[in-house]
Amino acid sequence: MKTKPKNSGRPPMRLKNPKQTTLRLIKMVFSHYKIHFFVAFLCIVISSYASVYSASFISSLLSEIEFQLIAVKANLSSDMTQIINQIVIMICVFTSGIIASLLYALLMAVISQGILKNVRDKMFKNMQRLPIRYFDTHSFGDIMSHYTNDTDALEQLISQSIPNLLTSIITIVVALVQMIVLSWQLTIVVLVTVFLMFFVIKNMGGKSATYFVAQQRSIGKVNGYIEEMINGQKVVKVFCHEEQSKKDFDTVNEELCHNATNAHKYANIFMPIMANLTYFQYAIIAVVGGVMAVNGWLITKEGQTAFGLVASFLLLSRTFTRPINMVSQQFNAIVTALAGAERIFELMDEEPETDAGYVTLVKCDEVDNQLIERDNGKIWAWKHPHGDGTITYTKLEGRVYLENVDFSYDGKKQILNDITINVKSGQKIAFIGKTGAGKTTITNLINRFYDIDDGKIRYDDININKIKKADLRRSLGIVLQDVHLFTGTVMENIRYGKLDATDEEVYQAARLACADEFINLLPDGYNTMLTLDGANLSQGQRQLLSIARVAIANPPVMILDEATSSIDTRTEAIVQEGMDNLMKGRTVFVIAHRLSTIKNADNIMVLDKGSIIEQGNHDELMELKGAYYSLYAGSFSKN
Asked: Out of 3.60.15.10, 1.20.1560.10, 3.10.20.600, 1.10.10.10, which CATH number does the structure's domain 18-349 have?
């Protein structure tokens, strides 16, 4: 039995601000492709006129043929010159229309693809500046949907819907003028039937549009769920949650089905109704025009017959109402595209990570007890400009001080409470505690993935809010438990830590991390291609590469977030010496569950419910026989 979608029974979503979104799209087109669009517009005008001209031409041609037939019946000489001239003119006009149509189609392709490129560039550029909080609260699949479904809808709008809409509007205006010129009486008949069409468009089209908006957002939800299940497929199978996953997917998929069904249901009903109204209009004009022609009520011009006028008006009425039908057909595509555009603009307008820092990290050399900034310097230093125009340089020593720090992710539930930590240069600080105690949160605050609610964090006596985030993070080497490797060679993945590193520096970093041995055993060594996040490597090998990636960056301070938790005991013994070499002379923060990783730490901090309940070195904490002693004697791994 299918699960009823969550939003059934509720009014579907509507566009938040269609006017603003439309104006923004127009501005985007004109800011980059003003000339292209102007030429395309001229081509649309020529093409529209050519299509309307056929109806006007029929009136003159039929009238001329009728006159020639009368002349033949009266045994008078007939002159075909006028007919031939009109046919030649018609061929020229239609040829111009064809050329104009081809040209504007080409121009709109250039415009649409160019706009989409700019949109994707801006989305990606802004995405790179978003805070970690955004990615923690949005599914990857939904974010990906901005680059796929939403941009596809936008492409449809720019390349097809907008040209069709302009063509339709111009055709409607030109055809209306031609109808008034031919017969104002029959024009009134046409306009009465058109008002009936607008009534249908307003009611049926409006219902369809709201569901198309909801459909676009439901697609994002489905994509997000699928992406999450693909990444977690092993977990699903381990816990035998296949059936539950199918039920959960059925819920979000049913919601999409519900919205899409209603959207297309109204759209599919809408089109036959509009088509039948067009035929109804055609019949009314034929009857009314025939009656008026028979009774001589039609006003004809010189050289024009009532028969030719009615025939021409019938064609003009079709030319007039066809674009109205086309506009109604494009209506749903336009609404869908505007819904996609709204989502795109939401990502583009998402507030980037704020950074008011002005202290930067530079390379210096020490000359006469003074730090001199140099591109190839050997000493890391903080460059601190002051309000009076002076600049001071402070050697980066890796001293970190957290003073009475409070933090919550949502502004409600406290994660850290009154945390005070004083870390001296070159010290190794270890955090232990139960899951959710706040260990990783502390390191996330040090590198400013999140900002504290209260208190202070100082780095070499500098408030970290004054340090530019990019420079702050450049000074911190982070090895995470969850390793992410990029598609590319082993060498390229290690070099990611320092893009201008030489091959020799890559080899040295790999040797330091004890990754060199297994890399040389790979099919192509350092040139082995890694795909699917390094799926062809073991978890331990992937972790060794991430350590090598940090080693090549040579950061003054390191954060190891359970970096060896995925490495077996034998591999850990191999890598431990390399890790110790890497940590020499650096301030190191370690989060680990293995005693061997933190036993030699200068200061071990035991956290519980966001507070530090014990701290000291291993021997001191063992003497206390408190929480650390319990962890050591019980659940804490001694491997």
From this structure: 1.20.1560.10
